[in-house]
Structures are given as structure tokens and as C-alpha cells.
Amino acid sequence: MKIYCCQFDIQWEDKKANFAKVRALLGSEKLEKEALVLLPEMFATGFSMNVGAIAEKERGVTETFLSETARQFGVFLKAGVVAQGAGRHGRNEALLFSPDGELLARYCKLQPFTLGGEAQNYEAGREIVVVPWRGFSLAPFVCYDLRFPEVFRAAVLRGANLITVIASWPVARIQHWVTLLQARAIENQAYVAGVNRCGKDPKLAYTGQSMIVNPRGEIIAQAGDRECLIAGEIDLAEVNSYRTELPFLKDMRPDYGKLAS
């Protein structure tokens, strides 16, 4: 089965333009039915702190677009949405829709990016999400979460064997993005797919490098720095056999939490 990463230059706070871009990119290739398609963090607006202008209630225009697009192309679609939180705060969320347009999962970013002002404008999520997808157990994460391996390990302890990361990861630290995606795959013996944006926003430049990594840490698909779709084949039997062949996860000590206290 296939995973697609849809990497593109997000137009700043222009939802209609970004909806059109996604439709064009997805329509440029014959997508495998019931494949998993990933769009970047805050794909409809860019990584904006202008919560009052871009946040939406549930079933707003962005959620409606994602539902309709998943149904149009017959795919599972995961993408970043800015939702309204408590008070003036937003919620940086990742939503997963089925090929029928049904909302299957809603995850709120656990680690808002403090240095970028996100922690002052967005609520931190409170729970890890693991959802079934075609035999896999999928854990969705968002951007800065990638720097915190403990949350990925917690997802794997809940059964995750496929990890997805949607991001707006800037060029200044792009090698960290590549290395950390591979590290999360290696240490958790899981497939990891990360989709990043490219282009520029008013403050930062982005060079994409979206990628799909197998449980051995090998890159099986990688984008460059331009708009594109990349695809990778993943195999549930492969991750299961690898975890049996090298059962590293079974050697985790249950008292690590106590050692840190």
C-alpha cells in the first residue's frame, strides 16, 4: 500500500489558493485508491500566529475541503488545520479523513514551538492519538513534536507502527528534520512519513525534503526543495517481521520514568 507526501509552497493566509494548489497536485498523478496522503502543517494558511483571522470552528471551510477532497480522490487524507481553542488561543491540529469523507482522528500538537511564538498563541495538546489504518496503527504528529522522542515512544507503546509528521520546518535546521525522522524510525522500528512545505513565508524559507523512512531507518522516498508528490510503498508484514527478527522494543525497561525522577 502507498503513502503520498504532497509538498508545496503555501500561500500566506490564502485558503482558496492553497485549496486549489492541493487539488492540482493531487490531480497530477493517478493516486492509488485508499492510499494515505499527507499535507503539511497549517497547509491552508502557512505557519501563522494570526489566530483570530485564520482559526475555524469544527466543520469549517478547511475541514469541509479535506472531507470533499478525500472523497473525490478516494484516499485517506491527513492535513493540518487551525481550530479555535479556549479564549484567544488556537489549536494546531492534524486531522485524518477516510475515502468516504469521514473524520477518523483529530490530534492537537503536543509541543507548540515556543521560539516561534506558537506557545503564546496555541494550546498544547493533551493526548497521543493512535488510529487503525488498513491494518497499521497510525500515530499522527506535528512538526516540533519531532524533537521529543518520548512522545513517539509512548505512541509505540500503544501499538503504533506507522508514524506521520506534518511540518513547516525551516531551511536553517533542515538537516535536523532529516536526521530526526530517520531516528524516530530506527528507535521505534516503525515506518515514518514526514511532509514539509517548501517556498517562503513572511519570515522564513523552507526547502521541503519530505520523506518516507522504513523501520530500518532507510529512506525509501524523498522530495527535493520544490513542489511535488512523492510516494512510498509500505508493508505491514515487513515491520512485523523486523520487530520479530530484532526485538529491541521488548527490552525497554518499565522503570525509566522512575530513573528520571
Write a structural description:
With 261 residues, this protein is an alpha/beta fold. It has a single domain, classed as Carbon-nitrogen hydrolase (Nitrilase/N-carbamoyl-D-aminoacid amidohydrolase, 4-Layer Sandwich). Helices cover 28% and strands 28% of the residues. The chain contains 8 helices and 15 strands. It has helices at residues 15-27, 51-54, 61-73, 118-121, 149-157, 174-188, 236-245, 256-260, and strands spanning 2-7, 36-38, 76-84, 90-97, 103-108, 122-123, 131-133, 136-142, 162-166, 191-195, 198-200, 205-207, 211-213, 219-222, 228-233. Strands 1, 2, 3, 4, 5, 6 and 15 form a 7-stranded mixed beta sheet that branches. The N and C termini lie far apart (42 Å).
Major beta sheet summary? 7 strands, mixed
How much helix, percentage-wise, in residues?
A: 25-40%
Order of helical and strand elements: EHEHHEEEHEEEHEHEEEEEEHH
Radius of gyration: 17 Å
Which CATH architecture would you pick? 4-Layer Sandwich
Keywords:
261 residues; alpha/beta; Nitrilase/N-carbamoyl-D-aminoacid amidohydrolase; 28% helix
Give the gist of this structure.
The protein has 261 residues and is α/β, with parallel strands linked by helices. Helix content is 28%, strand content 28%.
